Amino acid sequence: MKQLIPLVIPLALAACAGGMDSKFASDPAHYGLYVASVDVQIDTDIMVKNAQSGEVIPLKVTHTLHGGDTGYVDQVLPAGRYLLERYTPDGQSIVSLETPDGYFDVDSGCFNYGGHYSFGTGADGKPTYQDSTTLKDIEELPDDIRRQAKDHDVCSAAMGEANQRLAAADAAQQLDL
Q1: CB of 47 within 8 A of CB of 61?
Q2: What is the reported pTM?
């Protein structure tokens, strides 16, 4: 058994390293990096559905020392359209996010910036949210997230709109990455 341990540890580490992040690097023709900031105050998941496959995918919201109450999504996704489904703002209640404009697109080989989401509930009990996507806001992301835009095309993955792509060379001229 002791002889197997040196063999198992490298295999386990390789399996972890072979996840979605490596798919963006090794298969940029099919995957894009989706990044957004959200006003959710806890680490939670925002559930989205791939419009083509129907697969429901959790977008991990995490917090850093940089952001305070701001959470960040930093996730590799297959290229395509994603429909917002639901999230848990407090770890207990489930809030639907389904609306006609509740979608975003992910382009392959691109740093897809979804902007900053502000979630809420309207007087009618239905979900409300706003999405602010300003290119310069990428400069305000935590360093480890912002750095991933370097040498990649940058796409505006604004909610309810088709993506707009900015070539890596043009993004480098406009952004301090």
Answers
A1: no
A2: 0.83
